[in-house]
Each structure stands twice: as structure tokens, then as C-alpha cells.
Amino acid sequence: MLRAIQSYILYDLKRIYVRVDADTARSLVIGLLRQRKASQDNARSQADLLIEAELRGHPSHGLQRLPRLLARVDRGLVDPRTTGVATWVADSSLDVDGMKGFGPAVALAALQQLETRISIAGIAMATIHNSNHLGMLAPYVEKIAEWGCVGIAISSSEALVHPHGGTHALLGTNPIAIAVPTAERPMVLDLATSIVSMGKIHHYAASGIQIPQGWARDAKGRPTINAVDAKSGAIAPFGGAKGYGLGLALELLVAALAGTDLAPDMRGTLDSEFVCNKGDVLIAIRARPEAGLSKRLSEYLDVVRHSPHAEPDQPIAIPGDRATARRTQALKNGFEVDAALWTELKSLSRQSVLEGHNS
Amino acid sequence: MLRAIQSYILYDLKRIYVRVDADTARSLVIGLLRQRKASQDNARSQADLLIEAELRGHPSHGLQRLPRLLARVDRGLVDPRTTGVATWVADSSLDVDGMKGFGPAVALAALQQLETRISIAGIAMATIHNSNHLGMLAPYVEKIAEWGCVGIAISSSEALVHPHGGTHALLGTNPIAIAVPTAERPMVLDLATSIVSMGKIHHYAASGIQIPQGWARDAKGRPTINAVDAKSGAIAPFGGAKGYGLGLALELLVAALAGTDLAPDMRGTLDSEFVCNKGDVLIAIRARPEAGLSKRLSEYLDVVRHSPHAEPDQPIAIPGDRATARRTQALKNGFEVDAALWTELKSLSRQSVLEGHNS
Questions:
Q1: Taking CB atoms and an 8 Å limit, are B243 and A238 in contact across chains?
Q2: What whole-number distance in Å separates Cα of residue B138 and Cα of residue B155?
Q3: Which residues does chain A have within 8 Å of residue B243's beta carbon, measured at their own beta carbons?
């Protein structure tokens, strides 16, 4: 099942990477999830989300999340068979109890429900609680854009971000994704409201590299450029007071709509100890059908894309452009995975077989 | 009708301000609009929005917009009598042709429609085209929060912002406001996706003060700290690539939903020459009714508000806190208006009477 590792690369100071292809990685993930009684569909959608993150160059939302997810399944904190229970609590509002299911399995089932309602309602929303980490948000809003709709996805998360002017972690990284369909592929924004991800801080720490000033504070709230100290501290919000305001508004919005907890009480996305109590909000809005509108959007994006840039070698990027380019490359050439992680996953796979997980 | 000016204050290098009270200013505005055949309700709601901006310390959205608005009415670019025509194009989606009406008059009429649908739909949206400038977005989402709903408002606007890494204005300032009801007053975020407003650049220019590095570029796309040069150039997006991405996503979102133009083709909010072709999106989402939820949100905001801060004299601010404090003060003590502007408005008022506008 597992194809041979293609190459070893010394990528930075301390880490060794292996290059794997998407199908190999996907098969490995599906196998590990199936061994834990995940349905074929659930294993597939969870694997797809992890692999998509790798393909797009966001390993913090990729395979490195898998060992923890498996441990959570083994401890009964995740139910790999369910897609949750969805109830229309109002004409255009779907309440989803994730029943401790995989984030992607629950969210994709919710999207199927939204799709049935969107042409009548014009706008429809699913709020999700008692579900696990969705992974990257971009694929969900891209799915909504396939229906000719604007997609919005917002998740709450554990306290990692300090308020603007503050010193201690009180906000989640509270990501938001927005997709707008155009005549070509949709424009897809997917951003955390922190200045950087905690995954990147961990990466700097593992690589023995200092982080830039202004990124983080240590556990005592002091500014730090030591990545190891930052891991137990707090990350700055992006964009100063405005980014902080946006993150805080999304924090409250998710809690008010999904009924879920606030960052300081949030558990279950970064540990293997607790049921996950974050929330997600998915909104689909039908775009106007006017002839020429989607073409007008594409043309505008091209104007921006090809507009003058301040640095000769740095052309203007449209959100999603770089991820799409990386994905195209990675589908052809594979992507790099931390060698120790890859070895761990293969070992888990063999171990599961020996332990008879594959029932 | 007009009470005496209370005091003259030398506020900065070149400008002289007068202190006026809200009722005086409101009466003046209503009078000027009524003289131009605005209905009582329309004059009132337009005046309220301008005065609210002054009370909250955002003069860029206050009285300084009035002379242009009056000129637009006089030229037939604004119809002061209409509240637009609203049509439910789907169960939860209201399409509003503003019929060239005042922004606040059209938007408030749309909100009345949304309110009738929200308890059945759970989520409902109004998209507005062919309407004029809404002013500050905060008051609209606050109105939605009064229904126990999360409110979201997004507007598109004329090209004033350069892409991240770009040099020329291609994006609007594309503001977004979000209100979340709590057990106390709602948390209200209201931000433009530019690093600063063009109004503030104009203020620096009029005051002969340099702007900070990184705020703006001149008409040729070169970085500048000269506020006068920046007026004909481009403002930076807030928060680098992320803020730019958000602004661009909102730009496309409004166009895709309201069918309105994109920033480079946008006219009619900063001139007295063209019909206004920007768009607005208003979304109301019913918050969950769980007992204790809104109290939990208030308590969390208090935790953030009173959390440790990096600078001794700069406590943590919750979005809306400062505006609320300024409003309370200004309701008591009045607010400052540029003396030349105030004189112009009073002169316009007398002139209109002489010209028999008051028919």
C-alpha cells in the first residue's frame, strides 16, 4: 500500500523531510482511520482535508494533526462513525450536534443539508457544536462556491492570542474563510486572526530559529523572540487593533450562534484529553445570476493581479493564488513531510494491524 | 432654532473648531434636508446617522459629508423622498433597489423588512444597490442586535486602497461592522479595511502634519509621508496581506451579492457628479436562546477588558468601548465641528430659506 519514499531532504537546521505523494499519504490516512472503525466516507473526507492542507503548503493543518486525532479516537473523544445530527431550527438555520464526529465528516454533511435549502432560501446557515477540528476552512467555502454561492466559514479555537495591547492569551486564532465564485476558480480567502499560526511558532522552535519581534509573548506576558518560550505564551493578533477587533467579534459571533464555549474554556483541538467544545459557523449565500457578473469579478481580479507592484520580484497575489500554485506542483511532485512524523504514522499503521484494530 | 456656539477652540495647527450640541446640529441637518423635500422620517434618519458619527468621534462620517449630500440632492443624484423598493427574491433574501435614496433611509427600511422575517428564517439578508452612502455602519448592526440577533453590515466603496505590495488604489476601504448581543450592550466592531481613513489623511493635510510612514503612496505610487500628496494617491490596507485579503474578499462579496460595481468603477460617494453605484449587504442572524449565553459573553468581555496590559496607561479596549465613552461625553458636553464647515452649513440653511427651498 505504501509506496517507497522518494527522497530525503535536509530542509532546515534540524529537521529531515521525506517527499511523499498525495495518493500514498491519503491511503495511509484512510487505512489508519478505517482500522478505527471510521466509515469509508468519513475516513475519506477526514483524509482529504489533511491531504489538502499538505498539498496547499499548510502542514500545520495536515498530517501532523493525525497522531493526536487517532489518540482521540482511541480514547473515545472522537466518534469516527457519525456525521452528527442536523436539525432545521428555523427555515434557513441548521443546528448541528456533531456527536463527537470528525470535523470534516460533520461539516460536509451539514453542507449537503444547506445545499438542499439554498435555492429557496437565498441564504442559509449551519452552526456546529460538539464536533472536532475542521482543518483548513478553505475547502468548505470552495464547496459552497461550486453551487454558485458565496461561502463563509468561521471557527472558534483555543486561547492562543493576546488582545491588542494585552499580554496573555485570551482569544482563539478564530479563522475565517470567504469564497466568492467568479467566471474562473473562486477567490478564496482563508486566514487566522493571529499574526502567525502556533504551528509556525512550533516549527521555529523545532528548527532552533528565533521568531521576529512582535509575534509573541512568553508565559509571563513578556515580549519574546525565543520560539520555545512563545509556545507557552501568546501570539499577537494580526493587524493591531483592527485584527484584534475582528478576532474578538468572530469569537463572540461563533459562541452566540453555535452556543459553544469561549477561548479560555476551549478544549479538544490541541489535546487528547477533552471532548472538543469549539464551534463552527457555515454560511452559504446565493450570488446574483446577472449575466456577465462573474466575468466582471474575474476581470477585476486580473486587473489587481497584474497591477504595478512595489518590489520588482514580488507581483501582487490574490488570496488563494499561491495555495493553488503549490497544490498544482504538489500533485505532480508530491509534498514534504517531517520524516519522524512519517515514520510514526507508518509505525502506527503496522501496530494497528498487529493489534487487530482492523476489525 | 440654532443655539449659540458655545466656544471656539484652537484644536490643531490650522483648524478652528466650534463646540455644538447634538440637538442643535440635528435640527440644522433636518432643516436643510426638509428644505429639499425630504420626508420627515428620511430627514430624521439621515440626520441621526451624521450626528451619531460626530457623537462617537468619527467626524469623517459626520457633518463634513453634508454639503456634498445637499449638492447631490440639488443635482437630482439623490432622491430625498424615497426609501427604495424592496423585493424578497428568495425566502430569506431581500433585494433592495434604493431608487437613489438616502443611504440611511433605504437601509433602515430594509432592516424593517428583515425584522419581519428573522424569527421564521433564523438568518436573513438584504442587498442594497442604487442607494447612497450609509454613513457609519455601527448603528445598523446595533439595530439588528436589538432584536437579539448578530448583525453584519458590509459596504463597498471607491478605489482608495492599494493591494498589499501594490502601489495604486484599486480597492475600496470596504468597511465591515459586526454586532453581537450580550447581557449588556452589544459588542460592536466597525472597521474599514484600510490602515486609516481618507478622511484622516485629509485632516492631516489640512492641518499641515506629516503622515506616518507606511500609510500611503502618492499619485505615482511612491511611498509618501506628505499628506497632501497622499490625498491623490492610495492608502495601505490594514494588517498587510491579511487585511488586504479581507478587503478584497469583501469587495467581491458585495459585488457578487448586490450586483454592484467594483472599486475602480465606483462613483457617487465622494463626488457630486455621479449616481452612486456602490453596494451594501446587511445580514441578521438570530442568536441562540440558551439561558445564560448572553451573560457568558458579557463576562468574557469583562475578563478581556480587565486583563493585564503591556503599557501601564493603556488598558485593553473592547471594540465600541471608546466610541460609547465619547458618545456619553458628547451628549453631555457637545462635540467639536470645524468652524468653517459649521459656518457653511448655517449659511446654506439661510440661503435655502431665501431661495424658497422650503416649499
A1: yes
A2: 12
A3: 238-239, 242-243
Find how far residue B22's CA is from the centre of its chain: 17
Mean pLDDT of B187-213: 91
Minimum Cα–Cα distance from B245: chain A residue: A319
Provide, as residue numbers in chain B, all residues whose Cβ is less than 8 Å from the Cβ of A168. 307-308
Residues of chain A contacting residue B93, judged by C-beta atoms under 8 Å apart:
121-123, 285-286
For the stretch B142-168, pLDDT in tens is: 999 999 999 999 999 999 999 999 999
**Sheet with A149-155, edge to edge strand ranges:** A85-90, A93-101, A123-131, A279-286, A149-155, A176-180, A187-191
Cβ of B252 within 8 Å of Cβ of A187? The answer is: yes
- The ipTM value here is 0.95
Closest B-chain CA to A284:
B123
- Return d(Cα A240, Cα B303) in angstroms, integer: 19
Say if the Cβ atoms of B300 and A252 lie within 8 Å: yes
Residues in chain A within 8 Å Cβ distance of B189? 245-246, 248-249
Residues of chain A with pLDDT below 50 are: 1-11, 358-359
CA distances to A196, A256, A259, A345, B193 from B289, in Å:
35, 9, 9, 44, 32
User: For the segment A102-133, what is each residue's pLDDT rounded down to a tens digit?
Assistant: 999 999 999 999 999 999 999 999 999 999 99
Integer Cα distance of A163 and A235 in angstroms: 9
DSSP letters of A236-258?
A: PBTTHHHHHHHHHHHHHHHHHHH
Are A165 and B316 a contacting pair at CB < 8 A? yes
Q: Do the chains contact at A245 and B297, CB–CB below 8 Å?
A: no
Helix locations, B232-318, DSSP H: 240-258, 293-305
Residue matched to cell numbers 485593553: B316
Count CB atoms within 10 A of the CB of residue A8. Answer: 12
- Helix ranges (H only) for chain B are 22-34, 40-55, 66-74, 103-121, 138-146, 198-207, 227-231, 240-258, 293-305, 321-333, 339-354
Q: How far is the C-alpha of A289 from the C-alpha of B339, rounded, in Å?
A: 49
pTM of the predicted protein model: 0.95
| Inter-chain residue contact B191 with A246, CB threshold 8 Å | yes
- β-pairing, B93-101 vs B123-131, is parallel
Cβ neighbours of B130 in A, within 8 Å: none
pLDDT in tens, B322-343: 999 999 999 999 999 999 999 9
- Per DSSP, the residues of A281-326 read EEEEEEPP--TTHHHHHHHHHHHHHTS-BSSTT-PPPPTTHHHHHH
Q: Which residues in chain B are contacts of A93 at CB distance < 8 A?
A: 121-123, 285-286
Residue B8 pLDDT: 39
Residues in chain B: 359
A287 and B256: CB-CB below 8 Å?
yes
Per-residue pLDDT tens digits for A67-104 = 999 999 999 999 999 999 999 999 999 999 999 999 99
- Residue B344 CA to residue B334 CA, distance in Å, equals 19
Tell me the DSSP string of B50-103: HHHHHHTT-GGGTGGGHHHHHHHHHTTSSBTT---EEEEEETTEEEEEEEEE-H
Which run of H or of E encompasses B123? strand B123-131
Facing residue for A122 by CB, picked from B89, B166, B310: B89
